[in-house]
Amino acid sequence: MTANLILWGAGTSRTIRPHWALHELGLAYDVRPILPRTGETKTAEFTALSPRQKIPLLQDEELTIGESAAIVAYLARRYGNGEISLIPDDPMLYAKWLEWCFFIVTELDSTSLYVMRRHGTVKGLAHLYGHAPDVVQRAGEYFRDQLRNVDVALRDGRSYLMGDQFTTADILLTTCLIWAIDYGVGICDSAESYLSRTTARDGYRAGEKANSPGGHASP
Ligand SMILES: N[C@@H](CCC(=O)N[C@@H](CS)C(=O)NCC(=O)O)C(=O)O
Predict the structure, then answer these.
(1) Residues 6 or more apart from 204 whose CB is under 8 A from it?
(2) Phi/psi of residue 156, each to 5°?
(3) Which of 7, 76, 154, 203 is packed most tightly, with the most Cβ within 10 A?
(4) pTM for the whole thing?
(5) Cα–Cα distances in Å, from 54 out to 35, 77, 111, 152, 153?
(6) For residue 36, is the peptide bond before it cis, meaning its omega torsion is within 30 degrees of 0?
(7) Domains of the chain, each with CATH number or no CATH
(8) Element containing residue 17 per DSSP (H, E)
(9) What is the pLDDT of residues 175-188, one digit of tens each?
(10) Do 15 and 171 form a contact (C-beta atoms < 8 A)?
(11) How many Å apart are CA 145 and CA 65, to the nearest integer?
(12) Which residue lies with its CA nearest to atom 18 of ligand 1?
C-alpha cells in the first residue's frame, strides 16, 4: 500500500515509537526530525498542526494525530495486514492489549519515568519543572513496584506481552524499559530477556536509527 505519511519528531523515547512501528509495517514515510526544547515545536507551522506543541506527530493525508501510543495503534489498525499485524484481532485479546497499552503509558511512562524526567537533575528537566529529589526517588520506587505486573506476565515464558504476537504494547514497554535502565532504576530479570528479544527485531534497529536526528531512511 502506498501511503503519504509524514512523521514529525526524533531523538526521544516517545518519538522512537512511531519510527519503530512504521518500520515494522514496512511503510515508507517522510520525516521532519524536529527536536524538543529547541524551539522547533513552537514554530507557527508546527503549532498549527499540534496546538500542544508536542512530538511525535503523524500526518496521514488529511489526518493529523499526536500521542505516541495513539499513533502506533492507528498505524497498526490502518496498515497492519495478514503478514504483520501489531494489534490483536480477537476482541478478548484486543481488550488485554488495550489494558497493557493504557497501563504502560499511564503507570510506567507518565506516573513514573516522566515524573523522574521532569523533576530530576540527572538527565532531567528540573531546571524547567522544579527540583524534587524525594518525588524522583518515590517515582523510581513506584516504577519498580508497578513493573511487578510485567514480571508476573513475562515469567510464564511468553515471547511478547500478548504471547507469540508482537504488538504495539511491546513497542511502548520496550521504550519504557530502556528509559528505566538509562535512569538507573533497574528492571526485573524476566524483562531483561524480553528486552533482548524486542530490541533484536529489525524494526527496532531501523526505528532506532531513524529516530536519531539525521538518521532517517524509509524502509
Ligand atoms: N504523551 C505524549 C508525550 C509527548 C511529549 O511530551 N513530547 C515531548 C518530547 S518527549 C515534547 O514534544 N516536548 C516539546 C518540547 O519540549 O519542545 C506522547 O507520548 O506522545
Answers:
(1) 20, 174, 198
(2) -80, 5
(3) 7
(4) 0.96
(5) 10, 23, 18, 34, 32
(6) no
(7) 5-85+204-211 (3.40.30.10), 91-201 (1.20.1050.10)
(8) helix 16-24
(9) 999 999 999 999 99
(10) no
(11) 32
(12) 67
| Spatial distance between the Cα atoms of 26 and 10, rounded to a whole number of angstroms | 18
SS3 state of residue 102? helix
Spatial separation of the C-alpha atoms in residues 47 and 32, rounded to whole Å: 14
Task: Tell which atom from ligand 1 comes closest to the C-alpha of 71.
Answer: 20
What is the rounded CA–CA span in Å between residue 49 and residue 85?
Answer: 28
* Own/partner pairs, 197-203, CB within 8 angstroms, 24+ separation: 197/159, 197/160, 198/160, 198/166, 198/170, 198/171, 198/173, 198/174, 199/174, 201/24, 201/166, 202/23, 203/20, 203/21, 203/23, 203/24
Which residues have any ligand 1 atom within 6 Å of their CB?
A: 12, 14, 36-37, 41, 53-56, 67-68
Query: Which amino acid appears at position 35 of this protein?
Result: L
When pLDDT is cut at 50, 70 and 90, the band that residue 79 belongs to is very high
Tally of CB atoms within 10 A around 138 = 14
Ligand 1 test: best mutation among 7, 12, 47, 55, most atoms within 8 Å of CB? Answer: 55
